[in-house]
């Protein structure tokens, strides 16, 4: 697919789910591959992964970011996966400059974790465009995260594809109770939370997306907020005129939402 920067890039949030999706031929890996056909080739990708969660706003600045295997207990084949996309130190510095009021800095201590490469293996299998990661800053409020996302909006005019990677529901304790079941049932709390977030996204109701954080419903879906917050970064980077679609829906292990949210400019 040829590079085309005559229009603004779309923004995507994707439910990455199980790291094994990177190497298995399953329903989710096939959906990731089908989604790839809907996406233009960008100049670069900025990924906000749930798995780089900690204090501070940081951007990877390596020219050749490493592939991080940030998990344990999986087959050896998964640890052998490499995603050799280049970085872009100049773009990293420009992003840091844009986010100076958040104390952003370039980091050489991180690479591409599985929140990024497990889906990019399918979306960009040839690793042929630069990929940077932006950390999820645990010290920021939901409103501040949305504001930071707005500061990224202009990057879309430069061919930068903003990709948030997490899950709209992510309760691993519940997942483990359903692990191995042939057809695990989706509990009402997971279905309800996923539906409510989808409705808010369709309506560009950013107030709802923020105020749900910390509620009882949120805590059941997210015992920790790391897998939800990338959605706020991406929602902040979109315009109210962007079309909202859900190219992937459904639950893995019963309660893990695999919903993907694609925000597409009207001109695309």
CATH topology heading: Protocatechuate 4,5-dioxygenase, Chain B
* Unreliable runs: 1-5
The CATH class is: Alpha Beta
Major sheet size, sense and barrel closure:
6 strands, mixed
Number of E-state strands: 10
Strand content: 15-25%
Explained architecture:
The structure is a single chain. Helix content is 32%, strand content 19%. The protein has 268 residues and is of the alpha/beta class. The protein has a single domain (11-264), classed as LigB-like (Protocatechuate 4,5-dioxygenase, Chain B). The chain has a six-stranded mixed beta sheet with strand order 5-2-6-1-10-7, sandwiched between helices. It has a two-stranded parallel ribbon with strand order 3-4. α5 packs across α10.
List the helices and strands and how they pair.
Layout: E1 11-15, H1 27-36, E2 44-54, E3 58-60, H2 76-79, H3 89-98, E4 105-107, H4 114-123, E5 131-137, H5 142-152, E6 160-166, H6 172-178, H7 188-202, H8 206-211, H9 216-221, H10 229-236, E7 243-248, E8 251-252, E9 256-257, E10 260-264
Parallel strand pairs: 1-6, 2-5, 2-6, 3-4
Antiparallel strand pairs: 1-10, 7-10, 8-9
Short description:
The chain is built from ten helices and ten strands.
Which properties best describe this structure?
268 residues, alpha/beta, Protocatechuate 4,5-dioxygenase, Chain B, two-stranded parallel ribbon
């Amino acid at each position: 697919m040829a590079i085309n920067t005559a229009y603004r890039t779309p923004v995507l949030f994707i439910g990455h789910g199980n790291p094994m999706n990177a190497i298995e031929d399953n329903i989710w890996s096939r959906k990731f591959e089908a989604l790839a056909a809907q996406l233009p080739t960008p100049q670069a990708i900025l990924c906000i992964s749930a798995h780089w969660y900690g204090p501070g706003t940081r951007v990877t600045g390596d020219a050749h970011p490493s592939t991080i295997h940030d998990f344990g207990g999986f087959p050896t084949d998964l640890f052998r996966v490499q995603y050799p996309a280049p970085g872009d130190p100049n773009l990293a510095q420009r992003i840091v400059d844009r986010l100076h009021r958040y104390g952003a800095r370039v980091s050489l201590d991180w690479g591409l974790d599985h929140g990024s490469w497990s889906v990019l293996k399918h979306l960009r299998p040839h690793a042929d465009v630069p990929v940077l990661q932006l950390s999820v800053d645990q010290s920021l409020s939901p409103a501040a995260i949305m504001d930071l996302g707005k500061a990224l909006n202009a990057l879309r005019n430069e061919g930068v594809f903003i990709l948030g990677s997490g899950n709209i529901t992510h309760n691993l304790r519940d997942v483990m109770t359903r692990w191995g079941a042939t057809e695990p049932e989706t509990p009402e709390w997971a279905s309800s939370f996923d539906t409510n977030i989808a409705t808010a996204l369709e309506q560009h109701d950013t107030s709802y997306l923020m105020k749900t954080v910390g509620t009882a419903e949120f805590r059941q879906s997210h015992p920790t907020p790391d897998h939800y917050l990338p959605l706020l970064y991406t929602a902040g980077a979109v315009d109210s005129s962007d079309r909202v679609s859900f190219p992937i829906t459904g639950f893995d292990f019963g309660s893990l939402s695999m919903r993907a949210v694609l925000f597409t400019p009207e001109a695309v």
